[in-house]
């Protein structure tokens, strides 16, 4: 079956499970939304991304992309509209980045919008092993976006990222999240995992909070990112601070600190 370019970027999950890894998830992810999946280690965030990527198949339930079961799309077909950044990136080829980029995308060109945010061009002549962890992460993010850039330009891309900002300094954390916001505004869909509550509140349109392999809370960011929800998910206390610009931040409280 060929993927129809008009299907957009909408997922629907109905009672989806993945044995011992995801428990009975039902949700809709629509075109143009930016979802951040948050929760403790082992909560099922990465496993849910694997289901959405098509790499894993649900044990039970129905998972559709554009009203067609995701399993009916081959991985080769999905690769034209969907990219997936694994949490742990490895490469068997210690060659210059421009050759790696060509291997994965058949091009050595970095689109202007990606370069503006991630500054990859100056690194392309270097082997991957010579780069810092943050530089490698920026390259892998850029490589994934380049893979489906033609779909992104049309607003038909699905961008799945497992902890994309984990190895980045503050400057590039904000840069990649700003870039992802931009591609969502173009009509693309972003789903990523994160551990940074404050950045997720700032950049996500929708939040999914997971605990013990279950999606406990989901919806619009402002509705889901509440103190009581966060304390339920993380089994810890938080303090919410609002500054003079009405910007809200969450601070983890010490175990004996009253809130």
Automatic annotation (TrEMBL):
Matches recorded under PANTHER family: HEMIN IMPORT ATP-BINDING PROTEIN HMUV
Transmembrane segments: none
PROSITE patterns: ABC_TRANSPORTER_2
Principal EC category: hydrolase
Name this protein carries in UniProt: Vitamin B12 transport system ATP-binding protein
The UniProt record lists the keyword rRNA-binding: no
Protein species of origin: Glaciecola punicea ACAM 611
Documented EC number(s): 3.6.3.33
Signal peptide start and end residues: none
Domain ABC transporter: 2-237
Statement: the UniProt record of this protein carries the keyword ATP-binding: yes
InterPro entries per record: AAA+_ATPase (IPR003593), ABC_transporter-like_ATP-bd (IPR003439), P-loop_NTPase (IPR027417)
GO molecular function: ATP binding; ATP hydrolysis activity
Gene3D superfamilies in alphabetical order: P-loop containing nucleotide triphosphate hydrolases
UniProt keywords, alphabetically: ATP-binding, Hydrolase, Nucleotide-binding, Translocase, Transport
Protein function: Part of the ABC transporter complex HmuTUV involved in hemin import. Responsible for energy coupling to the transport system.
């Amino acid at each position: 079956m060929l993927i129809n370019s008009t299907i957009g970027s909408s997922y629907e999950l109905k009672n989806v499970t993945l044995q011992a890894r995801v428990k009975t998830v039902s949700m809709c992810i629509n075109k143009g939304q930016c979802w951040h999946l948050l929760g403790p280690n082992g909560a099922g965030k990465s496993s849910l991304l694997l289901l959405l990527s098509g790499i894993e198949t649900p044990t039970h339930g129905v998972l559709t992309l554009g009203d067609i079961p995701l399993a009916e799309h081959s991985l080769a077909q999905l690769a034209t509209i969907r990219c997936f950044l694994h949490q742990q990136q490895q490469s068997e080829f210690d060659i210059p980045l421009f050759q790696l980029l060509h291997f994965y995308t058949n091009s050595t060109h970095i689109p202007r919008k990606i370069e503006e945010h991630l500054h990859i061009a100056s690194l392309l002549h270097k082997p991957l092993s010579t780069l810092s962890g943050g530089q490698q992460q920026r390259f892998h993010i850029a490589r994934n976006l380049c893979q489906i850039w033609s779909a992104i330009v049309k607003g038909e891309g699905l961008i799945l990222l497992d902890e994309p900002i984990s190895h980045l300094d503050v400057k590039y954390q904000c840069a990649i999240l700003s870039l992802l916001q931009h591609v969502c505004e173009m009509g693309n869909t972003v789903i990523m995992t994160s551990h940074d509550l404050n950045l997720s509140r700032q950049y996500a349109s929708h939040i999914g909070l997971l605990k013990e392999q279950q999606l406990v809370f989901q919806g619009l960011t402002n509705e889901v990112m509440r103190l009581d929800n966060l304390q339920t998910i993380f089994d810890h206390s938080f303090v919410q601070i609002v500054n003079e610009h009405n910007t809200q931040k969450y601070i983890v409280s010490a175990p004996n600190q009253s809130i």
